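User: quick one, fold this
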Amino acid sequence: MWNEYYKPASLDETLHLLADKPARTRLIAGATDLMLELERGVRKGIERIIDITCLPGLDQIILDQDDVFHLGPLVTHNAVVGSALLRSRAFPLVAAAWQVGASQIRNRGTVAGNLITASPANDTITPLMALGAWVVLASLKGTRRVPLQDFYIGVRKTVMQPDEMLVDIAFPALGSSQLGTFLKLGLRRAQAISLVNTAVILDLESHLVKSAVITLGAVAPTIIHAAEAESSLAGKELTDENISHAGELAAASARPIDDIRGSAAYRQAMVKVLVSRALRSLRDGQEQSEVPLDPVLLWGEAGKQALPSSTRDQSSTVYGPDHPIHTTINGRAYTFTSGFEKSLLRLLREDAGLVGSKEGCAEGECGACTVFLDGKAVMACLVPAPRADGAEIVTVEGLSSPPVVYASPSLMESAPTDSTASRQLHPVQAAFIADGAVQCGYCTPGFLMSAAKLLEERPRPTRDEIVQAISGNLCRCTGYYKIVQAIEDASVASG
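Assistant:
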């Protein structure tokens, strides 16, 4: 998928590499968007990948002395979801990040990547626009600060130059008199692109609205403000009548299109519904009810304790035959002298011979390829293979004790070398067998991995937490009842 893959050790080195071949180079952090674009053939002419995941200090969330938040370009969506500080002072962003993909995507995808991709349906742009965010762009020529409202010039178009890197996302924290929320309408509960989304922030004094900010996503080429709706609320109480009027004005400001996911008329009608619903939730103190207080992240204890990626290995690397990928999979050391241009999933299946992880979609939609990368559940189809260098990986073969080990890189060529008679199954594996929680079985490895990480994170999950954990895993055969039951039974057995 690429010719050269670099892992720079410093920001300065990154900017020099970027300046060398800017038009044919792409920076990656999570890589969830780029891997999908390359798989679909949408992104052409990319020769060089610069992986910035080991750059120090770029995965931090900081609230400075001026009450301004700073998010580094390596801050993931789940890092936002898991931040108590952001929940208390920037809830609209937390609510948006919670609705991006599923946990496996949120554990890799970054807020910076979501901004740069520049789709008007991307969830985090809408709240950041409402929060008055700006970005800092760096190149060898220096840095520049760009208000987010000036960053976008069209669908998937920004003012960012090919030799620039986004190094900071900044926005003021909400004050004591401010409340905000984010709502989204998609075609399903998880893993859904926004048909419409909105962020609403109110500055309140007693029962009156001092000022209002209402931003709308997926209804115009870029994120827009519903300016007339904002003005209509100033100095007024949040009565049902005023809320309904603001919703109508917001709908009138939308300029949606017809596409395969929804008509323009439907989107416009839903703008009124979402804006009105957001305003009522703020009035009634229910704005945070849609996001769990302790959301499932699929980090587990290992993921929480793992060092940030930017502290692991800060040596500069160019991957190729002269610099192989050294990694640990299911507790065993592996060295790969090929496969640098692949996804992690294909490296595992084709080069390591670990065929338990399945490719169901190659788009991060189905979860059949779920593995643990440095303790966190991820979609292996959306991870570049060189990211495995220096990492700890667990596949479905590693859930049992001892792990399943094959004698050669190909399962088709030889039988397992270890005896299955003495193997201790993971409680989730045993429960899936006992409860018959499979039909065709293709999706089962992914469900097992998500469930195992959930039980590591919280040994006695509620049914709602189980649903959260498997929201990134699709089964096309069944209704999930047996799967949920097996996870419940496994929690009892392991407890």
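User: anything notable?
Assistant: Residues 307-311, 410-416 have pLDDT under 50 and may be disordered.
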